[in-house]
Amino acid sequence: KQFQKIKIEGGQTDGHLLFAETPNKGIKRIMPRKELGKSYARKYQEEDEMEDILLRKVQEKSSNDNDILEVATSIGTMPNISDLLGDQMTQVYENYSFNHEIDPQLLIHTYKDEIMEEIEQNPVVIIKGPTGCGKTTQVPQYILDSCRSNNVHCNIVVTQPRRIAAMSIARRVCQERGWNIGSLVGYQVALEKEKSDDTRLLYCTSGVLLQILIGKQDLTNFTHIIIDEIHERDNETDFLLIVVKKFLRIPGNRTKIILMSATINTDKFVNYFTKRINGLKLEPPVIELQTKTNFPVQYYYLDSLVDRIPITMPLLKLAEPRIEINGYELAALLVEVFHTIDAIEHEAKFLGSVLIFLPGLHEIEVMYETLEKRLSKSKNKEKWMLCPLHSTVTSDEQIKVFQPTPRDTRKIILATNIAESSITVPDVKYVIDFCLMKIQIQERETSYSSLQLSWASKSQAIQRAGRVGRVMPGRVYRLVSQNLYKNFSDDCSPEILRCPLDTLILKAKELDIGPPSAILGRAMDPPDLSNIQTNILNLKEMGALLLTANEVYDEFDGDLTFIGKVMAALPIDPFLSKLIIIGHMFSCVEECIIMACAIAVKSLFSTPFKQQLEAYNSKLRWANYSASDPISYLSAYKLWRYKVTSGQFKRSGGVGEDNWASKYFIQIKSLKEVVRLETEITSRLKRIGLIPTVGANKVKWEDHELALILKIVLAGAFYPNYFLRNQIDEKEAVKVLGGRDPFTTVYLSNFPSNQPGPLYIDAIKQYFYHCGSNMSVSFDGSSKVYLIFDSTYRSSIDRDTSGRRAPGTISLALYRAIKMRHLQIPITISVLAPLDARKRATEIFGDSLSPNIYCWNKRKSKPVNQTLLPGLGTTVLPVVITHINSPGHFYCHINDEAMSDRHIWINMQLNHQPDSLKKLSEDKWKNGTKCIASFTEEGHSAYYRTTISNVDMKTGTAQIFYIDYGNELEIKLDELKDYPDQLIESGVRDEPPLAIECTLAEIQPSARLNPKGYWSQDSVTVFSSYFRDKRCIALIYSVVGNVMAVTLFKHDKLDRVGCDLSHHLSFNHEFIEQGFAEMAEEPYLSRENHVMRTMAQKSPESLKMYSPSYLPDDPYAQFQFEPPSEKECQTK
C-alpha cells in the first residue's frame, strides 16, 4: 500500500500515516475532557478514618496484652534483642564532643523546652517560626542532644526542597559543633552525599527521603522525620506527606514527624494530620514562634501613593496579572525618592539597598532600562549599582548582590522570587514588590506545561517583606491597590493541582498499595480526577503503563511495564528517561544520557545580562545550525570533556577553563552537574540491566548517520510534544514586504513619516550587526524600514562556505533579527528636526531621492552595483563556473565574447599601473566599501575588484569579496587599495560585477545523507569535479534578488547551446540519482519569476509588460556621509 502524509484536524502531530485511498472523513476534533472533580477523594478519606479506628483498637489490645505479659515474665528472662542493638548504636555518641556555644539571639531557644515536650508526647508536631529564627539548624540538634543525654538511639532526617540548602545547612551545623561533615551530621542529595555509619542527623532533599521510604515501605529507618519549608507545596513534598501519613498508620510505628515553615497555613496542616476516632479529634499541636521583626517595617500600597507621587497610577485587575509601563516608571521614581528619605533618616550618610521583585528576566530588563533612564535625568548626586538576579544570569553578576557599595552608591537588586528565601542581603532597607510571579501550569487539553504570569499569594508577599526589618527599619512598597491585595489567595496553589502528575503516578505505582487515584486522592489538596486520567493516558502512550491493571482494562490505572520501572528508577522527567531508553535501542545511549542530563540540569548556557543575542548566536553555533537545544548541549559537553581529559585547560599559554567558558557562554558549574548526573544515571541503568553494547556487536554510526539517528530518537522521545510550523503564505509575505524576499528580509515599523530614511541608515544598521554584517536598508515612503540581509553567506558571524542555514530556508541573519523581536530589544533612533533633516538629506543625496525625499528614486538614478543578469527572454546561457561554495551556492561568468572582452578590459585597467594605487584610507575601512585587492594564484599576483564584507579592527584584517569571481579572502587592512580618480571616471569601479551568484534549481541536500540540512563535503567535491573552471550550459529557472536558479548540463554532452535540452539528463537529476540531493519546491518569488519566463517564451509580446532592470544591492552605498550625531538630534 502507498502511504502518504495527511493533516488530521485536532491531532497533536502534523499528520498520521494512513492508506492513500482512505478518505479523511468523519474525523472530528477531540473535545477537551470534562473535569471529573475531586469527589472521588472522599472515599479514601473515609477509608483513612476507618483505618484510624482499627489502629486505635489494635493499640488498646496490644497495651492490655503487654500488661499481662509483664506480670507473667520472670526476672531471669533474656534481654530484648532490640535493646541490645540500641546500646550498640548509642556508643557512637562517645566519639564526639557535644560541648558547644549557642547563639543567644536565636528566637528558637526560648521555645526549646516546649518543642521537646510536644515532640516527646505527640506523633506529629507543627512548628511555625519566622525566617532566621533558627528552627532548621537548632530543632534537629535539640533532638540529637536529648537522645545523647538519655543514651537513646536516634536517626534524624531533615528534608529541604533544594539540594543547595540541604548541603549548606549540614555544613553550618557541623561548623557550629566542630564536627567534620559526613560524621555525626551529613547530607545526601540526588547526585552527592557526605554521610557514614556514624551519621545520626541527615539533611537531604524531599526526593531522596521519598525514594528511601518507597523502597522500605515503612518509617522504621528513622526515629524523627523533619519536613522543612512545607509551605512551598511542590509535588515531591506533597507526595512525601501522603506517604508519611500512610505509614504512620502501620501498627507499632514510633517515628516522630515534625513539620516546619515560616509562612505555613497551620489550620490546613492540622486538619490534614488530625485523627478522627468515634467523633473525637486528635489534633497535632502547633508551636508558633513570635513573628515580629527586630525593627519596625512600614507598608505602602498604590492607594497611599496616589497623592504623594506625581505619576499616573497603573490600573490593575485580579483577572489580568501584568505590569503596565507606568508601573516601571513608578518604581524608578520611588527609588529616586529614597534619596530624600535617607537624607532625613540617616543624614545622607547611608544609602539603603533596594530589592525589587519582578516575575521574570524580561521584566528585569525593562526595569533595568527604566532605572538607567531615570538616573540619567536625576538631579541627585548618588550613583546606582544595578544588580540583576535570575537563574540564567552568570555567577559573576550574581556575586555583585552581596558586594558592599561605596558610600555614594545605592545598590538596587532586580530579582525574581529566587530572593524570597534563597538569599539574604543584610543591608536591604526598601522592598518594591510588583506582587507577581511565574508558575508552571499544565494545560488540561494538551498536557503541555508552561510558565504563566500570576499574582503572588499573600504568604509569598509576607515572605518578600521579611527581607527588610532585620538590621534597620524598613519600608515595603506593594505596587497594587490594598483592595486588590486583599483578594490575593492566602497561599500559592500547590503544584499537584497545576503541574504534570506523571512522575507522582510512577511513584504511586512503585508503592504498590493501590491505584494512583487511591494514593493521590489522599493528598492535602487532591488533584482533579480528570488530571490523573490524562496523565495515566500519557504514561500509557509512552509505554510506561499497560492498558490493563491485573489484566482488566482500566482508564484510571495500568500495570507498570519495564519501561515504566526504568522511568521510576531514574531521577529525571519521564520524557528524558524515554530518550535514554530509545537511545539504547538505537545504539546511541551515551549521547542520549548526556542530552537528558543537560536538559534536566537546565541553564547549561549562560545568558549575561544585556548579552542575550550574543548568547543566542553562540548557542546556534553549538547546535551546528540545527536549532536544537539537546544537540547544542551535546556538542558543548563533549568538547569540554575532551579539553578536560586531554589537559588542554592546564597547558601553559593556553586558554583557561573559565575564560573558555566565558567566551562561549557556558556555565562550568552546570557542566560539572551534568557529569555527576551522568554518572548517577549510568550506575542506575547498570543496576537495572541496561548496559550499552560493546565490542563487535556495537553499532557504530558515521557522523552524518548519527545526526539523523539523534533526530529520530529525539522525535520519538518527546512525542507528541512537537512544535508545528504553520504553512507559510509566501505570497502574502512578499506582499507585506513590498516584493522583497521573505527569507532574507525583515521590516521595522513606526518610522516617522516626515523624516528622510536614508539619512539614518547607519544608525539603523548598528542595531543589527549582531545578526549579520552584510545588509542593506531600503524605504518605500511609508512608515516601514526594510532590512535585507545578504543571502550569500558572507556574514562575519557565519563565515562558512558550505552554505549552512538555519533549519528550512530562512537565513541565519533573519533568525537572529527575529530573535531580537522575541527578546523585545528596543530600537530607538535619534532624529533631527524635520526641516533640518530635509535640508541635510538634499545636500547629501541631491536628486537621488524621490520628490518626497524619503525613499530611493528609481526613475532618476541609474542603478549601481547591478549584476548583468539575463532578462526574461533568456532561458539558456553558456557559463563557466568561477567559484564553488556548495551546489546551493556558486558563481559563474557568462561564457560569450562580449563578457570576455569586459573581463579583459577591467583587469587591464586595474593592473596597468599597479604602483600608482594608493592605500585605502582608514575612514573607508567599513563594510560595503568598494576597493582593490591582490590575489595570488600559481605564483602570479594581480589586482582585482573587491568589496569589504567584514572589518576586524582587533586583528587589523578584513574579509573581502572578489566581485568578479565570487571567492572570499581575509587580508590585512593596510594591503587594501583605493580607486584612483581615472578608474572611477572610466567606470571601472561602478562597472557591474561579472560574477553571477547561482544556485541549483528545484533540489536540496538529501535528508538521508545530509540530515543537518546542508550540502555534505562529498557533494561539494563531486560538484567541483564536474564544474570548477569548466564550461557548461545553464537552463535558467528564475532570477530573484540577483541570484540565478539554474539547471546545469555538462558541456561535453551537448552538441550546441541551442539544442533541445529535454533529451539530455541534467546534472540536477543526476545529483538526485547519486543520492546527494532530492527534489524541492522553489520559493514563491522564484516560482513567480519562472512563470513570467515561461509566458515570455510562449508570447514574446509579454516581454514589454515586464522591466528587466533590477534594484541595486544597496543604492546608498555610493554616498559617503556622516550620520547625524546624538547632540544634533532633539527628538527620539
TrEMBL record:
This protein's record includes keyword ATP-binding: yes
GO terms of biological process kind: cell differentiation; meiotic cell cycle; regulatory ncRNA-mediated gene silencing; spermatogenesis
Family annotation (Pfam families): DEAD, HA2_C, Helicase_C, TUDOR
Ranges annotated as spanning the membrane: none
SUPFAM superfamilies for this protein: P-loop containing nucleoside triphosphate hydrolases, Tudor/PWWP/MBT
Main subcellular localisation: cytoplasm
Subcellular location: Cytoplasm
EC numbers for this chain: 3.6.4.13
Any GO MF annotation of the entry: RNA helicase activity
Tudor domain sequence ranges: 924-986
Domain Helicase ATP-binding: 116-282
GO CC, any one term: cytoplasm
Catalysed reactions listed for this entry: ATP + H2O = ADP + phosphate + H(+)
Domain Helicase C-terminal: 343-512
InterPro entries: DEAD/DEAH_box_helicase_dom, Helicase-assoc_dom, Helicase_ATP-bd, Helicase_C-like, P-loop_NTPase, SNase_OB-fold_sf, Tudor
UniProt keyword annotations, A-Z: ATP-binding, Cytoplasm, Developmental protein, Differentiation, Helicase, Hydrolase, Meiosis, Nucleotide-binding, RNA-mediated gene silencing, Spermatogenesis
Domain of life (superkingdom): Eukaryota
Coiled coil: none
Family: Belongs to the DEAD box helicase family. DEAH subfamily.
Descriptive protein name: Probable ATP-dependent RNA helicase spindle-E
